[in-house]
Amino acid sequence: MLRFYYCIIMAIPFILYFYAKAYYIESHADEYDEISRYGLATWCVRKCMKIGHITTKSFGLENLPKDGGYVMFPNHQGKCDILGIIDSHTEPCTLVMDAERSKMPIVDPFITLIKGQRLDKTDMKAQVKTILTVVQEVKAGRKYVIFPEGGYENNGNTLQEFKAGAFQCAAKSKAPIVPVVIIDSYKAFTINSLRKITTQIHYLPAIPYEEYKEMSTAEIAEDVKRRIQNLLDEKCVISE
Q: DSSP string spanning 84-114?
């Protein structure tokens, strides 16, 4: 956690600017489109990564669908995961996040800035409403990130169970699914060191709706997990 606290302390001037700018944007929401919001989010992410000596190498950007909305499903390793995705994903994207975790300092205004969705795991009715909102937004062309493993404690480069319910948003919106492989991201905030860390983001070929429409969400979850595992098996011999 040394790097995490180091980033927070060293980034205080940037954090104060971010808070002020994010507040201003929310107060003048009609004047700022999604591209402007994402620009501030990207600036914030890259400042944090530079301060923390974190570099992300991205691969497979050509696999992202050129038009329309889609849902990205990455494996989950830690707090740095979404930073690597936003750093490499040039078009605006957002995410679905656990409502309780989303209320943490810095995270709260960040999720609001990128208009992410907060999933209340204690309220089934609220969950359904959130899913329907995501479905409609994906249909309208937004790009979402959903972590199907849910938590990330001690995941490392090992996959946990992929929850079938996480794939409802893609299935109901009939959108392409983009499996995303995250490698070594967990090292950023778990290794008690400030040495340079390089993480990897691999965007795998998108799975069109026509390819998975006859599958149950449980089958989709297993298929996406298998694709991610295949690349982990290939790459992690080198990265570990």
A: HHHHH--S--EEEEETTGGGSTTHHHHHHHT
